[in-house]
């Protein structure tokens, strides 16, 4: 299903969405975790970036499997790519929780849980963001090496 669009592999097209949106969600999550005043203003946008990136991951994985049939096994890249969803989901959930807690507070609704809950969620969101950022880098690096490693090495005389 997720193989070709107009004769071109869909994988690089979808991956660019993930490569842009997930790091934006990482940076946005860190920003709203550190600056609570930004949660109301930018929280929805950060959650949207994380949600769209997370939704694109299964498409990227499926299209990567389809591309693998044309170009061969990408090795480590496929394994790391399969794991990325398990970094994106906690990022999305914690970012959403951070925004929901702030919106409840702004609406004057009673606090949910202990008073330290927003700070704990913010801390966990930063950890999830950093982990997701590292994993995005690892997946991208392994993908670039799988796609371009031989061509670049042979052109430089190595």
- Uncertain stretches of 5 or more adjacent residues: none
Task: Tell me the β content.
Answer: under 5%
Q: Helical element count?
A: 5
Q: Strand count, sense and closure of the main sheet?
A: 2 strands, antiparallel
Q: What value does the Rg take, in angstroms?
A: 19 Å
Percent helix range: over 70%
Number-wise, the strands total 2
Fold and architecture overview:
It is a single chain. This protein is mainly α. The chain has one domain. Helices cover 81% and strands 3% of the residues. It is built from five helices and two strands, in the order ββααααα. A two-stranded antiparallel sheet has the order 1-2. A hairpin with a 2-residue loop joins β1 and β2.
């Amino acid at each position: 299903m997720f193989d070709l669009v107009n004769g071109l592999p869909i994988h690089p097209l979808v991956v660019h969405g993930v490569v842009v949106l997930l790091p934006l969600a990482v940076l946005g999550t860190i920003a709203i975790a550190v600056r609570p005043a930004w949660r109301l203003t930018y929280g929805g946008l950060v959650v949207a970036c994380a949600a769209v990136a997370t939704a694109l991951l299964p498409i990227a994985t499926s299209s990567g499997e389809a591309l693998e049939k044309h170009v061969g096994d990408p090795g480590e890249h496929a394994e790391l790519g399969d794991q990325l969803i398990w970094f994106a989901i906690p990022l999305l959930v914690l970012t959403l929780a951070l925004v929901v807690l702030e919106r409840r507070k702004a609406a004057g609704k009673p606090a949910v849980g202990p008073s330290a809950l927003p700070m704990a969620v913010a801390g966990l969101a930063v950890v999830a963001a950093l982990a997701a950022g590292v994993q995005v880098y690892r997946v991208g690096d392994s993908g670039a090496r799988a796609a371009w490693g031989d061509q670049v090495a042979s052109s430089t005389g190595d």
